[in-house]
Amino acid sequence: MELSALSALSPLDGRYVRKTGALRPILSEAGFMRHRVKVEIAWLKALSKAGFSEIRPFSDVTNKFLDALVNDFAVDDAARIKDIEAITNHDVKAVEYWIKESIGLSLPPELSRLQARPITVDAIVTDELKTAAEFIHFACTSEDINNTSHGMMIKAARDEVVLPALNAVIEQLRSIAHQNASLSMLARTHGQTASPTTLGKEIANIVSRLQRAAGKIAAVEIMGKMNGAVGNYNAHFSAYPDFDWENFSRNVVENSLGLTFNEYTIQIEPHDYIAELFDAIARANTILIDLNRDIWSYISLGYFKQITKAGEVGSSTMPHKVNPIDFENSEGNLGMANALLKHMSEKLPISRWQRDLTDSTVLRNIGMALGYTVLAYDSCLRGLNKLEVNAERITHDLEDAWEVLAEPVQTVMRRYGIENPYEQLKALTRGKGIEKQDLQEFIRNLDLPQSAKNELLKMTPASYTGIATKLAEKI
Fold first, then answer.
1. Cys staple from 379: which of 28, 89, 246, 330, with CB 3.0 to 4.6 Å?
2. Does the annotation count 142 as an active-site position?
3. CB–CB of 96/40 below 8 Å?
4. What's the rounded Cα separation, in Å, for the pair 225 and 231?
């Protein structure tokens, strides 16, 4: 079957292909190849400026040519690398050969069955790069290229896609919190009527949690290493024993690639930062699962209506239904994301001795984990944008819950030393509703100063919200 959105095995590249497109240039196989090319070119350009007699500084025209290999990298270039890899059976070596071919060098004889690719290179560039050809991938192990590529991919996905999507959800929630800061609402603890709050304050709680979670995601340092086969620069020092390879590597990782240098590694960068980042994203996702379930329940209670769209169908048999599908889809996709994120955070920091290959297959699924995450954020945001507050229903529920004022009444009774206040209110209200007049009659018969009685008699369920409005307004 020909590959298409309808035949794709993963819904991320099928049903939801348009919603995950921002991640595709970054985390796809082609994106991975492009980042590998960027690392190889950055290393080569740095070597040209290192002062070695065997490789001289490149001219401006050559540097521009090398930069263009990265900036103009296209799907056809990725396909060519895959053709080379089909023969080499080594993905990083295929990238090295592609770069050499792109600067006008011939491929090794074992690749002769590949159709030649027409290459046009300026004569100055050709001369400079032919001399420097064997400094492409010089002293590197494949993981020097892969780990830094993954680092740049993850950093770009986090900063350009994941965090903006999460922040869009936060901003919409903040808007809802501010608009409904003073809308009194019945709270429910254990599913039972409880001390009133405001709708805005309950949404503000989620905003506060997500702000902190987003800050944790943003704060994770994205690491990289370029120190050879087992992390000791063995090959580097065999060629140039008097060169400061550690600072050279640090400069490439930090200044050319924009990552944080990891000084101590085995053959692989140990992936601890990936675990830290993915745990942080999973925590944000868990908060959103909590939100999705609460909003779903509030829709069920009628506290929210959903804005309908012409042509949409809620049920194949029940025409009246407007299902909260966006929040359900978000919850399901967050679960998928967290399953992958948590597996990665538990598996990736573990490697047998100095290297095993179990991380390689797992790392290829980063796009899946972040794809489900972004898809869930999109569904949640779409659901939030369709919400319409049903203030009448919220107010009606609150007006029918005078029993929630048992708390302030017994608290004031405690202040003035009346015995067994809790027990008295428990007998009056526990497990049963109470009418306004019954509660007020109880208050009038209390041995309290008249001023205290007057304050209690003025109180309604809607007015008993503490500083909820203030908290919602300042989020």
1. 330
2. no
3. yes
4. 8
Q: What is the pLDDT of residue 320?
A: 52
Q: Which of 53, 190, 316, 320 is catalytic?
A: 190
For 336-341, what is the mean pLDDT?
A: 98
In 3D space, the residue among 216, 129, 124 whose CA is nearest the CA of residue 166 turns out to be 216
Percent of residues, the chain, with pLDDT higher than 70 = 97
Q: Domains in the chain, please, with CATH?
A: 18-107+120-135 (1.10.275.10), 142-223+269-391 (1.20.200.10), 401-465 (1.10.40.30)
Helices (H), 232-324: 234-239, 245-251, 272-301
Catalytic residue among 4, 315, 360, 463: 315
Instruction: Spell out a b/e string for 341-361, using b for 16 or more CB atoms within 10 Å of the CB, else e.
Output: bbebbebbeebeeebeeebee
pLDDT tier at 310 (50, 70, 90 boundaries)? low
Whole-number Cα distances in Å, 450 to 195, 407, 431, 435, 460: 24, 19, 29, 22, 18
H or E segment and range at residue 258: none
β-pair partners for 260: 223
With vertex at residue 101, the alpha carbon angle to CA 149 and CA 40, rounded to the nearest 5 degrees, is 25
Residue 357 pLDDT > 80? yes
The amino acid at residue 201 is K
Q: What span, in angstroms and rounded, lies between the C-alpha atoms of 464 and 78? A: 64
Q: What is the DSSP letter of 362?
A: H
**pLDDT value for 317:** 52
φ, ψ of residue 354 to 5 degrees: the values are -85, -10
Q: Which run of H or of E encompasses 466? A: none
Determine phi and psi for 300, rounding to 5 degrees: -60, -35
Q: Which of 22, 12, 260, 341 has the alpha carbon at shortest distance from 160? A: 22
Q: What one-character-per-residue DSSP string does 322-360 give?
A: ---HHHHHHHHHHHHHHHHHHHHHHHTT--STT--SHHH
pLDDT 10s digits, 148-203? 999 999 999 999 999 999 999 999 999 999 999 999 999 999 999 999 999 999 99
Instruction: Specify whether the backbone of 166 is left (phi greater than 0), alpha (psi in -120 to 50) or beta.
Output: alpha
Which residues lie below 8 Å from residue 309, measured CB to CB, with a gap of 6+? none
Whether 316 shows a pLDDT value over 60: the answer reads no
* pTM flag (> 0.85): yes
Q: What percent of the chain has pLDDT over 90?
A: 89
Contact 372, 341 (CB under 8 A): no
Which range is least confidently modeled, 137-146, 308-317, 438-447? 308-317
Contact between 104 and 121 under an 8 Å Cβ cutoff? The reply is yes
Q: What is the pLDDT of residues 391-402, one digit of tens each?
A: 999 999 999 999
> Could you confirm whether 320 is annotated as catalytic?
no
